[in-house]
Design goal:
- By secondary structure, the protein is an alpha/beta fold.
- It has three domains: 61 residues, no CATH class; 229 residues, 3-Layer(aba) Sandwich (Rossmann fold), CATH 3.40.50.300; 264 residues, no CATH class.
- Helices cover 54% and strands 7% of the residues.
- The strands form two sheets. The chain has a seven-stranded mixed sheet with strand order 3-2-4-1-5-6-7, sandwiched between helices.
């Protein structure tokens, strides 16, 4: 292929391959496979001869393409007969560049072999076994010269041309139709030969021309047998044919009236083909047209619109939903209850503290007690396998599971809003990809969250010391009074107890110690409630952060990855199509 064309084509081929890879599993398999096939075929064609241009003659039964082939080559190479089909396998005529490349002048090769690269390797790739090398100005058997030669002054020098005569597109032999369909996707230039009676053939238009809208630059249409038409009928048929081609996006295709019998129009056909060959760019143009066509197929399958993506508040909303369904409210209540229990053990009247030892710690029941307070055996097991760190929260109810499922579906649906159904469905699948892992991951995240439950408040030791001092004061006062009472009962003379403002000191110590203990206990109640509520809010915040992280990892990140995949696909498609990349919202 022409070196000047390869750099421009290579990025588009790479982009088409990238788009096909990104579309795999999202868009219809046949569309993706078609793009992959073009990338693969283009790579193979680029590795073959850049000096040859392959022109294929395609047509329905009776269109006269073999007669045109013979007229252009100047030799009766193609079989022409009344029986159908006349062409059962492809036939190649190679102009000029063939010596030393596995082809000999005017030699027919039936085994498809040939040493070296060039024409032989190219024809091997095309699967064309019958080949003729033409390296002199040919003359037909009736004495007329061929319309393609070497160094002709009329501009029809065809050096480097490979002309193919192909089986009928409507052949009754299925193998012939398959050969024609395959080569229609591989030749560099497509020449469609039609006749006045079958120019509107359904097979031609539905199976071939309708899919060639981007190939106008490498397409030529020949209306053969015009010698059978009057001037008026010729104009009518040509106008009708051009309208039909325009309907396929081929309005710019060159349509030439010709006659293989009289030679009318063949000089122009020779010039047109020779001009294409001389440019050495037909192969690149054909591949570029294939890339554009497959990119258009991918674009049509992808549809219009683009996904909205994950909104700024969607991630946090999902985290809150997962937290509620995962039992975070129960954990928060347990954190508050655990703090109140530990606070009571530290700040209540020391004489009654033993009563709190009969109450179970709510966090211990949920297996959420601080690690330092857990039994050593449990700590060792968790250290060996963090997955064992699970809570004992009640099993999720059907309602809770429905809440989680609904939250995931809502986020994925919102992220895919605006996209076409194939991509919206892919985004929804991405959101549900880890649905089975979600409950366990939420439970582990809750179990692994530092709830701050093992730490007391700064005022706990203060009130604890004061409570013990108050109790000690009351005990001293009670003991003093007891000694005085016992001495009086036993009639032991003792000095009177000291007084303060007329009140005996032992009595003041007893009453004051008891009163101080009660006041300290009453003071601890609101302090405990306020602090427990604060600890609960902090635990809720940390737990929601943990469940949000789980939601991000198992739901949001896959959804975002799918949205990013869409944008990468769209960008690759734009580069493959050769249009500027539009940057939408991300």
């Amino acid at each position: 292929m022409s070196r000047r064309d390869t750099p421009a084509l290579a990025p588009r081929l790479d982009a088409l391959g990238e788009a096909a890879e990104l579309a795999a599993g999202r868009l219809p398999e046949d569309v993706v496979a078609g793009a992959d096939a073009v990338v693969r075929a283009a790579g193979e064609r680029q590795a073959l001869s850049a000096e040859h241009t392959v022109v294929g003659f395609f047509g329905a039964t009776g269109s006269g393409k073999s007669s045109l082939f013979n007229a252009l080559t100047g030799r009766d190479l193609a079989r022409v007969a009344a029986t159908r089909p006349t062409t059962s396998e492809p036939l190649a005529a190679v102009w000029g560049v063939g010596r030393g490349q596995g082809l000999d002048p005017d030699a027919e090769h039936g085994d498809g072999t040939g040493e070296g690269g060039g024409a032989a390797a190219l024809l091997d790739w095309l699967g064309v076994r019958r080949r003729h090398l033409l390296d002199e100005a040919p003359v037909l058997d009736d004495g007329r010269p061929g319309f393609l030669g070497f160094g002709r002054r009329d501009g029809a020098d065809a050096t480097g041309l490979i002309l193919l005569d192909l089986p009928d597109i409507d052949s009754v032999e299925r193998g012939n139709r398959e050969i024609t369909s395959r080569l229609a996707g591989h030749v560099d230039v497509l020449v469609w030969v039609v006749d006045p009676e079958k120019y509107a053939d359904a097979v031609l238009h539905r199976e071939f021309l309708a899919t060639m809208g981007s190939h106008a630059a490498v397409t030529l249409v020949l209306l053969n047998q015009v010698d059978r038409l009057s001037v008026r009928d010729r104009d009518v048929v040509l106008a009708s044919l051009r309208r039909m081609l325009s309907g396929h996006g081929l309005g710019d295709v060159r349509v030439l009236p010709v006659s293989a019998r009289t030679g009318e129009g063949l000089e122009e056909v020779g010039r047109q083909v020779a001009a294409i060959v001389a440019q050495r760019g037909a192969a690149a143009e054909r591949l570029g047209a294939d890339v554009a066509a497959r990119a258009a197929d991918l674009a049509a399958a992808s549809g219009e619109g683009e996904p909205a993506g994950v909104g700024p508040g969607d991630e946090q909303r999902l985290g809150r939903e997962l937290a509620v369904a995962g039992g975070v409210p129960a954990v928060v209540r347990a954190v508050e209850g655990s703090y109140r229990l530990r606070s009571a053990k530290r700040t209540s009247w020391p004489v009654l503290r033993w009563m709190h030892s009969f109450r179970a710690d709510p966090l211990r029941r949920l297996h959420l007690m601080p690690e330092s307070a857990a039994p050593r055996r449990d700590r060792d097991e968790v250290a060996r396998d963090p997955a064992l760190h699970r809570t004992s929260l009640p099993e999720r109810s059907g309602t809770q599971r429905a809440v989680v499922d609904g939250a995931v579906r809502t986020l994925a649906a919102a992220a895919g809003a605006g996209a076409s159904e194939p991509w919206a469905a892919a985004i929804r699948r991405a959101g549900r990809e880890h649905a089975e892992e979600l409950p366990g991951a939420v439970d582990q995240a809750i179990a692994a969250t530092d709830l701050g439950a093992g730490r007391g408040s700064w005022w706990h030791p203060v009130l604890d010391v004061l409570q013990w001092l108050a109790l000690l004061t009351a005990v001293v006062g009670a003991g003093w009074l007891g000694v005085l009472a016992l001495a009086g009962y036993l009639q032991f003379p003792l000095p009177p107890a000291p007084t303060v403002e007329g009140f005996p000191l032992p009595t003041l110590l007893l009453v004051g110690g008891l009163a101080l203990g009660v006041l300290l206990a009453l003071l601890a109640i609101p302090l405990t409630r306020w602090t427990a509520a604060a600890r609960g809010r902090r635990a809720r915040r940390r737990l929601e952060e943990a469940t949000t992280d789980v939601g991000r990892r198992l739901v949001v990140d896959p959804v975002r990855a799918e949205v990013d995949r869409f944008h990468a696909f769209r960008d690759a498609l734009a580069r493959a199509s050769g249009v500027p990349v539009r940057r939408g919202r991300r």
